Amino acid sequence: EESSHCCMKLPFYRLIKSTKKCCVWYRKFYPQRCRSIEMNSSIRTQCLIEHHIFIAAGSLCCRAHISDGFLKMDLIDKIKKNRLNQCTIYRDELINLFDDMKQELKNKDSKINELVSDPPLNFDDDEVPMPDKTYRVLTGLTRSQFDDLCSHIPSSTLRTTDVRTPRMAIASHSTKILQSCSSSYENSITDAQDYSDISESESDDSEDGSNILYTLA
């Protein structure tokens, strides 16, 4: 019983915890104008580690205060400017805080492992195939067309490494070709002569048709 009430002072900015008011601005919530959202462990952990702002579990704030899953920076700056950089934190709150931080680290570690084992741009995707749309966007080819292209290029002719297989090398080259073609087409449009400057009289007087007005489709 006594241990649960043990507390200590720490150099953190502490926000209030209320079910009726925003923990950032202390304003009441209204269903139509000011809707609330609970500050999840990711937001609370990020605020504590990066900005020394302590937010108790179960705290609510306005939805408009959250952007891309985090508390907006302008609000963080105002908290640091207007709040005292010292607060009292109880033992149970610290335990919950450490549990949240541990869970966040596990989540981050899990995401990193997923990216390492299954990178987003993986053309050697026999087990987890990439969508056909991804192939078309990156290479201009469908999955079957890309497979056919790879079958006609001997692996021995390509320089590969531990992190770049023959298929990855072909995909990289195909992407560069597609980008080059797109750039060439764009340049042909932007560099085209403005034939609208040619007057109708000049066009009518021309016998060889050199001043014919062309339209780029």
Automatic annotation (TrEMBL):
Q: Which organism is it from?
A: Rotaria sordida
State the protein's name: Uncharacterized protein
Alphabetic keyword roster:
Coiled coil
Q: Recall the taxonomic lineage recorded for the source organism.
A: Eukaryota, Metazoa, Spiralia, Gnathifera, Rotifera
* Segments forming a coiled coil: 91-118
Keyword Coiled coil (UniProt) = yes
